Amino acid sequence: MATVRKREGKTGTSYQIRASCGYDSVGKQIIRSETWRPEPGMTPAQIKRELQRRIVALECKETTKSGAVKFQDFAEEWFKEVAERTLKPKTLDNLRHQSVRVYQGIGHIRLDKLTALHVQSLINNLEEEGINQHTGGKLAPGTVKGYFHFISTVLSYAVKIGMLASNPCSRVTLPAAQHKEKEVYTLQEAQAFLDSLQGAPTVWRVFFTLAIYGGFRRGELLGLEWPDIDLEAGTISIRRATNYTKSKGVYTDTPKTTGSQRTIKAPVEVTTLLRAWRAEQAQYRISWGAQWQAGNRVITSDMGKAINPSSPGIWLQRHCKRTGQRCLGIHAFRHLNASLLINSGADVRTVSALLGHSNTTTTLNLYSHSFAEAQARASEAVADLLQAKAK
């Protein structure tokens, strides 16, 4: 869209032309302008034609340039203008990690030249053997999807601000999802694990007992503070999470989603253990004196220092190896908690709320098999009841 403003001055008539030519790589509107003076003797019709020609020249000039930015340059602007202002540090850190491979593949290509084939070739490359630097094999389909989501999000923003007409990612085929049943500890294994914690440091007994009984995420457990726990009422509230990124180190943030902020009822066994740990922690506070790290964290070192999020997993691996138990990782205790809730007859809304999922769809997607088994058992129970009455 353009505007023309006629001006009369001492030097004669002039026209100020202003044209809106879309948006630049950071979403700022591009305005081109120039001042033109007609040649003496030009007729009104000639002036009108020349003004139209200059308007078209202004609009075409900048529109051609607006899509000429390379994907990497545009993505960096997106990080600065959007991602860094709206995303959590952990998510931002993951995207930064993904951007390295993405830039190697398509970072040099201009937005207006980037096609679905370019993106598809990168996705296909990520599925090849040897790409995974840890295992030497392929990247998991979920990991590949994460890279794709990063690219699509950046390009969707380009579409939103008018730099692209459409997102080429809409024409890309992703690897088929592999629905693999999550490995879960059995009830017997969980009880054996709890028994094996009897001689362990109290802080780890607290951490893993809460993981099993509450189904809390690792970051939620590390973010717990004593004011979040009402030992008299026997309730535990999740209000924050502790995470780690290379740039920030250990830091405290809000929980993963709004739904993650929740309160659960803890059994007596858990509150009794928490009382014992609070008393022990108070003794540590006295012993270390001025060296004690100020704060109300529940899960801390002897000095009251925040524990690195990688430490619980490392301790668990060593403990399982030492005691000869199967080690499925910390998150397996969350899956165990969910399975126990479902098997006890809890409905999907209850399970979703206790686990802190953002919606019930997430719960159903993760535990569809467990819900199906529970429903089958319920149907069998009804059939058995009806058969018994018929006899």
3D architecture notes:
This protein has 391 residues and is an alpha+beta fold. The chain folds into 3 domains: 2-66; 71-171, DNA polymerase, domain 1 (Orthogonal Bundle); 187-373, Intergrase catalytic core (hpI Integrase, Chain A, Orthogonal Bundle), CATH 1.10.443. Helix content is 52%, strand content 12%. Strands 1-2-3 form a 3-stranded antiparallel sheet. The protein has a 3-stranded antiparallel sheet with strand order 4-5-8. Strand 1 and strand 2 (12-23) form a beta hairpin. The longest helix is centred in the last third of the chain and has 31 residues, at 360-390. The radius of gyration is 30 Å and the shape is elongated. The model has no long low-confidence stretch (mean pLDDT 86).
Total helix count?
A: 13
Tally of separate domains: 3
CATH topology of the largest domain: hpI Integrase, Chain A
Unreliable stretches: none
Total strands: the figure is 8
Largest sheet: 3 strands, antiparallel
Name of the CATH superfamily of the largest domain: Intergrase catalytic core
Give a short summary of the structure.
The protein is an alpha+beta fold.
List descriptors:
3 domains; three-stranded antiparallel beta sheet; hpI Integrase, Chain A; 391 residues; DNA polymerase, domain 1; alpha+beta; 52% helix
In terms of topology, how is this protein built?
Blueprint (H helix, E strand, L loop, with lengths): L1 E8 L2 E12 L5 E8 L7 H23 L4 H16 L2 H18 L9 H11 L14 H20 L26 H10 L5 H13 L3 H6 L5 E2 L4 E4 L2 E5 L3 E5 L8 E4 L2 H21 L22 H13 L7 H13 L4 H8 L4 H31 L1
Antiparallel strand pairs: 1-2, 2-3, 4-5, 5-8, 6-7
